[in-house]
Automatic annotation (TrEMBL):
Pfam families: AP_endonuc_2. Keywords: Isomerase. It comes from the Bacteria. This is Sugar phosphate isomerase/epimerase. One of its GO terms (molecular function) is isomerase activity. SUPFAM superfamilies: Xylose isomerase-like. InterPro entries: IolE/XylAMocC-like, Xyl_isomerase-like_sf, Xyl_isomerase-like_TIM-brl. Residues 23-170 form the Xylose isomerase-like TIM barrel domain.
Length: 269
């Protein structure tokens, strides 16, 4: 069994300034933060990333990863910056992030035409190769509306890209029962990076609940993650709180206490 660490995604508290996110993580006794590229640490603004890295180090909070939106659209999208990949990699390095969270193109799922799926694979491979050249890992967003909506879909991307730097995050599909969600996790556990931790109802992001309500799912999830193969370089595996009920900082504190309690009991068992 390997150690699981607790953390949070900064996008959970988009409304807070960077220093306030760090202070909240410290108060909640969270070990690390995944910093989002859509607000707190914009791609290419390396001075911002360096400042965030210093503040985290001073506070004793790890930078778990850089939460980018690379791959959510094709690189030839006219609305995407031409240097999007390089900018994200520059910021990840400046943050000291060991890996980047990336997407597969939104709107392209397993039933999409083969040419579209091939472009997703090509884009993902380009990201993995470029990240690996800088000593960075890559983790796929496990998300509805994409090729990585399901374990089978994530496996198809991982197998097609076939790059040692590429893994997948995991989060539960709120449309599934706990048993079904656990079956999905077991299928990707061999390539698992981190967990995005939340409790939503069937209505999705608009139907959020305290983490304590999800014990039936999350306690066995943590056990599966603790038994998953280690990450390169003995990188810790994190369970990252994401999108808490009512976007409430106090809910982060309560959910963190729940998560830390589960992790503590897991490590004692």
């Amino acid at each position: 069994m390997r150690v699981i660490e607790s953390g949070m995604c900064s996008i959970t508290m988009r409304q807070l300034a960077t220093d306030d996110v760090i202070a909240l993580a410290v108060r909640a006794e969270l070990a690390g933060i995944e910093w989002g590229a859509d607000g707190h640490v914009p791609p290419g603004e390396t001075s911002v990333a360096q400042a965030v890295a210093r503040r985290c180090a001073d506070a004793g909070v790890a930078v778990t990863s850089y939460g980018t939106y690379l791959g959510i659209g094709p690189f030839d999208d006219p609305d995407s910056p031409p240097d999007e990949l390089a900018a994200a990699l520059d910021s990840a390095e400046a943050l000291g992030a060991p890996l980047l969270r990336v997407w597969t193109a939104f709107g392209i799922e397993s039933d999409a035409p083969g040419v579209d799926r091939a472009r997703v694979i090509e884009t993902t491979a380009a990201i993995a190769q470029a990240a690996d050249a800088r000593g960075l890992g890559v983790a796929l967003e496990f998300h509805p509306g994409t090729l990585t909506h399901t374990a089978a879909g994530a496996h198809s991307v991982l197998a097609a890209v076939d790059h040692p730097a590429l893994r997948t995050h995991w989060q539960p599909d709120p449309a599934l029962t706990p048993a079904e969600a656990l079956d999905e996790l077991k299928l990707v556990a061999g390539s698992l990076a981190y967990l995005h931790v939340f409790v939503w109802g069937p209505g999705g992001i608009g139907e959020r609940y305290p983490l304590a309500d999800g014990a039936e799912l999350w306690q066995p999830v943590l056990a599966i993650a603790a038994d998953a193969p280690p990450l390169p370089g003995d990188l810790p595996r994190y369970g990252l709180l994401e999108y808490v009920a009512d976007d409430d900082p106090e809910q982060v504190v309560r959910d963190a206490a729940t998560l830390n309690g589960w992790i503590s009991r897991l490590h004692e068992s």
